[in-house]
Design a protein that fits this description.
The complex is a heterodimer of chains A (about 80) and B (about 650).
Chain A (H helix, E strand, L loop, with lengths): L1 E7 L14 E5 L4 H7 L12 E3 L2 E3 L10 E3 L8
Parallel strand pairs in A: 1-5
Antiparallel strand pairs in A: 1-2, 3-4, 3-5
Chain B lengths: L6 E6 L5 E5 L2 H7 L2 H12 L13 E4 L14 E6 L6 E6 L3 H7 L4 E5 L6 E6 L2 E6 L8 H11 L6 E4 L2 H4 L7 E3 L3 E3 L4 H7 L2 E6 L10 H17 L10 H11 L2 E3 L7 H7 L4 H4 L20 H4 L4 H6 L1 E5 L9 E5 L10 E3 L3 H6 L9 H14 L3 H16 L18 H13 L3 H5 L2 H9 L24 H9 L11 H7 L13 E3 L8 H20 L3 H5 L7 H9 L5 H21 L31 H12 L10 H6 L4
The chains are: A mainly beta (about 80), B alpha+beta (about 650).
Chain lengths: ~80, ~650
């Protein structure tokens, strides 16, 4: 059964897997790493990525659940 | 009282009278404190024909509603006045440690009117307030004056705000300094203080600041603090990664909602200087007075501005009052080739760009040195850098010659000449006297041929973020009552703000084609209106704009406000307060004869003509109609920019 997670990521990631509401569909039991694959984050970069699930630090093998919020690197300017 | 004291102090510098004034609770419920209280007070009390440098102008120092309550990143102080730079509403704000001292003295704000016959400073402690002779510090730079006045104060815990030489000499791009060189820089607030012969404020009060629900405030603060603590960059994140990320950003076809908190690690590691190199490949940083690009200021140049090199010089990291992110730092510059300062505040990105990228200058030693010169003089580095860029382009085109420049060879990137020019501006000598009032006034004095080289909006020089990359920046540069500022909003900011999760009318962002940012559309205007109203709340609370960029789901300003005041207002109701403050500032401008369309950014900044090279090549946008659409959406007449009777009635401003 599929589940949906909300993804917040900088626009330079491949966002084609994201629907109009900002959700990405994954198979039940998927991990953060599965999400990386779905977003086509290059393999060598994955160990370097830092993600948060529901605003808490998460490892790549963290299992995701329906409705989870996954945040990745964001760029906000200012000065 | 709940977060506010309900009292302001009015100091008449002409008569020497010092009078406390009660402010009704209803005013706070309509305008909050900070920016809102300032807008209310100045709109009511400054007559329409007041000379900004005359006795009728009022200069206000105001603390934020949340300052001192235990909330986090809410310790900024506001300065408000009629701006001598634009002729309309003026404001500036600053971090550091002054803001809570305003409240500890028993007041939410201190307002000054009149002009003193001789230099004075205001001293306040728990026993009262008095004006004291400032002859011994008049002429001293801001750091020396602060040291002298602070050491003279018998109460050890004190805070000082002072002007330096630029404010004393009524430079229209001068600001007000606290904490050894941190400056409320914009709108020419330093010139207003100088015109009043007011050298400084020394605040040494220790009165308590009370809140409605301190336990709730603590709970929200604890949660936010833990989130910031978790945000640390992985080891591979060095300065060299930043231009690559920038390049990738420029190639992205879509924009998306982001979690702004994820940028906290970047601010913790570098402070704002990460943009030094990240802003160049994608076009965020204006190059060569807004006419160049990364093709001109390429890697051979920008590698010298690498933030890793800057934090290597950092000997101390510091934070403003109540901040948990700590983006500030002190840099050791004992080995600087241009002078004998021992240290300086870590220059902000705005300073690095305005005296680096904008001038084709790759000499970081010069930037550190200028940073310290300007901090001590109390001169705005954004306006000063833009003004030097203006002079360099005038020189390039023969509008200024060495005969005019006191022999200075003002070629792009000539660091030694740039430093000398800054010194002339601070001391108002020679060409520096003409340039000490910014680009618009400078062009008026130099002549018609200089006008195309002055970058500004309504007379105020723009922040170092290119509106051709993010046109919503251009809208805010143009529609705000104090124009040209980069700290109100942009698409990038809105997309990280998550306002839509709290405010019923704020459009939700998921992902959308980036090209839509350039549309004259209602949705873009509503997003910009949301930025403006939210910014007024931040400034009413004494909040840090960078905290706002982390997202309102993390930095829970609405919850802190309710816990502080007990008002139990909804985010929509707070945004209405923001709308009221924003509209009051616009009413101030209309009352003082400002034509809102005259605040439109100059043509080059909206891509007229477009750049021929670089990531922004070919970009232009319809700024005039974007402004009109914003006015229409916010309830101001789309033809004139004046608030309509309907919106005044709705906001109880009639």
């Amino acid at each position: 059964m599929d589940m949906k997670v909300k993804v917040y990521a900088a626009p330079f990631f491949n966002l084609s897997a994201m629907d109009e509401n900002g959700y990405v569909s994954l198979k039940a039991g998927s991990t953060v790493n599965s999400l990386y694959k779905k977003l086509k984050i290059p393999f060598p970069l994955r160990p370097l990525m830092k993600s948060f699930v529901n605003y808490k630090p998460a490892k790549r093998n963290k299992k995701l659940e329906e409705g989870d919020i996954v945040s990745m690197l964001s760029i906000i300017s200012g000065g | 009282m709940k977060g506010y004291l309900g009292k302001v102090l009015l100091v008449d510098l002409s008569s020497g009278e010092i009078t406390p004034e009660e402010i009704d609770d209803k005013i706070y419920e309509k305008y909050m404190s900070g920016m809102g209280l300032g807008a209310y007070y100045l709109h009511k009390n400054i007559p329409e024909d007041a000379d900004p440098l005359g006795p009728e102008n009022i200069l206000g120092f105001i603390s934020g509603l949340l300052t001192g309550t235990g909330s986090l990143m809410t310790g900024r102080w506001m300065v408000v006045c009629k701006s001598p730079l634009t002729g309309g509403w003026g404001d500036a704000n600053c971090g550091g440690t002054l803001s809570p001292f305003i409240k500890r003295c028993g007041y939410d704000a201190i307002f000054f009117k009149g002009i003193s016959e001789k230099p004075v400073y205001l001293y306040i402690d728990d026993n009262g307030a008095e004006l004291r002779d400032a002859a011994h510090v008049w002429g001293k730079d801001a750091v020396e004056a602060e040291d002298t006045l602070s050491n003279e104060c018998k109460i050890k815990k004190n805070a000082v705000a002072t002007i330096g030489k630029a404010g004393e000499k009524i430079s229209l791009i001068s600001g007000i300094v606290n904490d050894q060189g941190r400056i409320a820089a914009r709108s020419g607030v330093g010139a207003v203080m100088g015109s009043k012969k007011l050298k400084a404020l020394v605040l040494a009060g220790s009165k308590p600041i009370e809140s409605h629900d301190p336990a709730k405030i603590k709970e929200i603060s604890k949660e936010f603090s833990a989130k910031i603590k978790d945000q640390n960059l992985p080891g591979f994140m060095k300065g060299w990664v930043l231009p690559i990320m920038s390049k990738l950003m420029s190639m992205a076809k879509n924009a998306s909602a982001m979690d702004g908190l994820m940028a906290a690690g970047i601010f913790k590691k570098w402070g704002t200087v990460f943009i030094n190199t990240m802003g160049i490949p994608n076009g965020d940083s204006p190059v060569k007075n807004w006419k160049g690009s990364v093709k001109d200021f390429n890697r051979k140049y920008y590698k010298h501005l690498n933030p890793d090199l800057i934090i290597k010089k950092q000997t101390k990291v510091y934070s403003c009052y109540s901040c948990v992110m700590a983006c500030g730092g002190i840099c050791d510059i004992k080995d600087n080739k241009y002078g004998d300062f021992t240290h300086t505040h870590k220059p902000e990105y705005e300073t690095c760009c305005s005296f680096g990228t904008l001038l084709m200058n790759k000499d970081m030693d010069a930037i550190y040195y200028i940073n310290e010169l300007l901090n001590r003089a109390g001169m705005d580095s954004i306006s000063a850098g833009n003004t030097v860029a203006f002079a360099l382009e005038c020189y390039e085109n023969g509008v200024l010659t060495q005969k005019d420049t006191d022999g200075l060879d003002l070629t792009w990137g000539n660091a030694e000449a740039i430093i000398e020019l800054v010194k002339l501006m601070i001391n108002r000598q020679g060409i520096g006297d003409i340039l000490a009032d910014g680009v618009k006034k400078g062009a008026e004095k130099i002549g018609e041929k200089a006008v195309p080289y002055g970058m500004h909006a309504g007379g105020q020089e723009p922040g170092m973020h290119d509106s051709r990359l993010d046109p919503m920046l251009g809208v805010h540069y143009s529609v705000e009552a104090s124009p040209g500022k980069h700290t109100t909003g942009a698409n990038l900011f809105y997309n990280g703000s998550h306002l839509w999760s709290y405010v019923s009318w704020a459009p939700e962002i998921t992902k959308y084609p980036r090209k839509e940012d350039f549309d004259v559309s209602e949705i873009n205007a509503i997003k910009a209106m949301a930025n403006s109203c939210y910014k007024m709340i931040i400034d009413g609370a004494g909040g840090c704009w960078l905290a706002g960029t982390l997202g309102v789901q993390h930095w829970k300003i609405f919850d802190w406000l309710n816990a502080t005041t007990g008002w139990e207002k909804s985010p929509d109701e707070y945004m209405e307060m923001g709308h009221r403050i924003q509209t009051t500032r616009q009413m101030f401008n209309v009352k003082h004869g400002i034509d809102p369309m005259s605040f439109k950014i100059v043509d080059r900044m909206s891509g007229k003509p477009p750049l021929e090279k670089g990531p922004l090549a070919g970009v232009s946008f319809d700024i005039e109609n974007m402004m009109r659409k914003y006015w229409e959406v916010i309830g101001w007449d789309p033809a004139t920019g004046a608030p309509t009777d309907e919106v005044k009635e709705k906001l109880e401003l009639k």
